[in-house]
Amino acid sequence: xxxxxxxxxxxxxxxxxxxxxxxxxxxxxxxxxxxxxxxxxxxxxxxxxxxxxxxxxxxxxxxxxxxxxxxxxxxxxxxxxxxxxxxxxxxxxxxxxxxxxxxxxxxxxxxxxxxxxxxxxxxxxxxxxxxxxxxxxxxxxxxxxxxxxxxxxxxxxxxxxxxxxxxxxxxxxxxxxxxxxxxxxxxxxxxxxxxxxxxxxxxxxxxxxxxxxxxxxxxxxxxxxxxxxxxxxxxxxxxxxxxxxxxxxxxxxxxxxxxxxxxxxxxxxxxxxxxxxxxxxxxxxx
Length: 286
What we know:
Helices cover 74% and strands 0% of the residues. By secondary structure, the chain is an all-alpha fold. Helix 3 (43-61) runs antiparallel to helix 4, helix 4 packs parallel to helix 9 (169-198) and helix 9 runs parallel beside helix 13 (254-277).
């Protein structure tokens, strides 16, 4: 390849619209982050994240006797709370409230047409909105999970808790829980964003999706593979017993679980991009 051909290709790369798309995605993400955290529709999400913190405060005030036995016992109790309450309830419904409204909320507010008329590719609009929703969900849910985890360990004393969480095995567990929350937001968020584009009443498919996720422990392995919670549970640092009637299956390898969740999100983004390219807004029918 001659020097002139190389220069020409580099020049084309410099003028390729990637830089513009990145700037647009970042601008949209900042816009959606502010809307997600400050709009009135975010009130139920704040109520949701307040519930585990209230549970944590209750644990500090009236701790279970088992929590005072050891930090390991406190970690097991938090693992159960995270598994059955925080992940399956708070993160699920919180993502539903945040991500469904990324498009459906704009349609109800009769403001989506402003973005559709802007000089921006509609696929970039999808990615920017998803990025903003992910930023908002991570800002809300990750600190909530970590604060609740600290509260569950505090009955053992401030000093032992600090050493356990900062210099002991608690640090790795905290990072693992944070990663599970982030991946849960990615998986659930992309699905709910897609639902907001395809359904006028997204809560109906959300309810069906919830029923499927709740029934996952009782499904055979082949059906577990098409649920999000199955991959999230495989990444939890402390295994949790799901009950005597649950069908036991071997956990998914961490790298495979992460790839599966990212693949779900990518597929949802592709479908959302296809959907929004042909989307026409008629507020009179909403």
